[in-house]
Amino acid sequence: MTAQRIQLRQLTLLAILTALSVVLRIAKLVPIPNVQPVSDILMIVTLELGIGFGIALAALTMFLSNIILGFGIWTIPQILAYIGCVLTIAFLAKILPLKKHLTLQIIVAVIIGFEYGFLVSLGMSIYGGVAAFVAYWLSGILFDFYHAAGNFAFYLVLYKPLTMALEKYEKRLL
Fold first, then answer.
1. Cα separations (Å) of 86 from 6, 33, 73, 128?
2. Nearest Cα residue to 49 out of 81, 82, 75, 11
3. pLDDT tens digit sequence for 19-47
4. What does the radius of gyration of the chain's CA atoms come to, in whole angstroms?
């Protein structure tokens, strides 16, 4: 397959995964705040397709979904928080046998639910210093718990079909 065709296929997959993530972030499948499968999709994509794909998907998902949900001072911290989560996943995949063990993946999925909220809160400190960070983080801990619990549940549902689809995609590139 030519390099140009491979790039087109990668761009097409990125567009499809971005559209899926944006829709699933906006359309609340579960009527509980912060419970959505975006973190799980990012984790699976990062493990299967690499850090570059994960970062691109994270940034595009947050930017495009905020076009609909609304931009604000939280937008940049949200984008950076998901990029931070992707970096965490990629780092842990290098030092742990993460791809081989579903249990480890689920643990990391739960952790990034909390990490995302922490990093968004940390990003808010740009606007109000340490006091803003502490206030934002403390007021959001319950929502971080919802996010982590949602990650646990959605990972169990998404792991097999999304991993199989991405592995099939990768084989077709060869």
1. 23, 22, 21, 26
2. 11
3. 999 999 999 888 999 999 999 999 999 99
4. 16
CA 84 centroid distance within chain: 9
**Cβ atoms < 10 Å from Cβ of 11:** 11
Confidence (pTM): 0.94
| Residue found by looking up tokens 């077709």 in the block | 172
HSE value, Cβ hemisphere, 13 Å, CA-based, for 155 = 25
Question: What are the two backbone dihedrals, phi and then psi, of residue 157, each rounded to the nearest 5 degrees?
Answer: -80, -40
Chain segment 90-138, per-residue pLDDT in tens? 999 999 999 999 999 999 999 999 999 999 999 989 888 999 999 999 9
Residues with Cβ < 8 Å from 75, sequence gap 6 or more? 62, 63, 66
A 10 A CB-CB count for 50 gives 13
Type of residue at 156: L
